[in-house]
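Review form for a predicted model. The reviewer records the input and the model, then writes brief findings.
Reviewer: anonymous (R2)
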Amino acid sequence: MDNCKECGKIILSDYRFCPRCGLSIFGDAPKGRDSNDGNEPEGDAASRFFSLARELSEAANIDALLKKIGGAIEEILCAERSSILLLDETGENLYFKTATGEDILKTLRLPIGKGIAGWIAQHRESLLVNDPYSDERFSPETDKKTGFRTKSIAGVPMIFNSRLIGVCEAINKKSGDFTERDIETLCGFSGLAAVSIANLQLRADQKNLYSNLIEFIVMAADSLSRPEPSPRGHAWEMARMAPLMGKELGMPLHTQQLLQRAALIHDIGFLGLEYPELIGINIDRKLNNDARYRLHTVVGSEMIKGIKVMKELRPFISCHHRYRNGEGFPEKISPETITLETEIIAILEDLMLKGDKAAIDPGRYTGEVFEALNKITSG
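Model under review:
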């Protein structure tokens, strides 16, 4: 392991660039000769390279990331076009995730081992081809389908943690031929790209797992015999309404999404009450329904106490039966700690329990929250 010389982040051995700020683990952008084989000065190219590398660390999704990569390849290597191919789920084909030029490219699949990109993926080696039509590894089928003529190719594999991610290609050098220095530059860039793509794919997988686990938790909690008169499936209905109320109150999108997640698991405490031994909580099983009902907010909050990804949800679980006028439970929560966001979950829970907004006491809530409920339920 090493530390980034720019931001101090610990960098694992698989990283060639800092995933936070984009700088090489070997230090700042290289300084050296004033020319780059007749192209732009090496110092300028390196400066633009690392500037783009920093942008990659901030990309929010794979599509945006790959557009930046493709643009950087063309810009830095002075290429007419670029293409970024990713390995598909079968591991047997490459597909064009992003490519300069014809849209038809995105419909094509290239078998591993076929064409220049397929050869690079199969052998996991970089390749420099300045006369592709005389190279037996080149497949002219893509040119035939697009009408474009490939004159030169520089391509490198994108690998992270010994796993093939895809292939980066620069196509048709604008002046002269691609060189080994171009390959070195492309290799460095593909290393950063592979790390960034792998991280984004991992986050997407984690988000998918999180979403499915939440759904299982809600289904399990909803199937229990509950010591309250709320209808089954009410968490799903609250999850539908909560972001609508957040939007009505002018809250940003991430807060609306937070409200939706909070609405889904606000009653998770009932699971803990049903199976206390599984979560390490000692609860007297002889408690009557009223006592169990008043405990579920505390139990739910304790259940997710150590789960970092659910940290923001704890106040909603704790406060969804505690009101601004001092009513409700648990008693130890001060009304001053209640926010507009937690009031949204509380008023929706009130609506589910009473079945009619006319039965809700407006004095429990901030006026704008009550007004927002009226707006989204009217008509």
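Findings: The beta strands are 2-3, 10-11, 79-87, 93-99, 109-111, 127-129, 153-160, 163-173.
Further findings: The chain has two domains: 2-202, 224-377.
Recommendation: see findings above.
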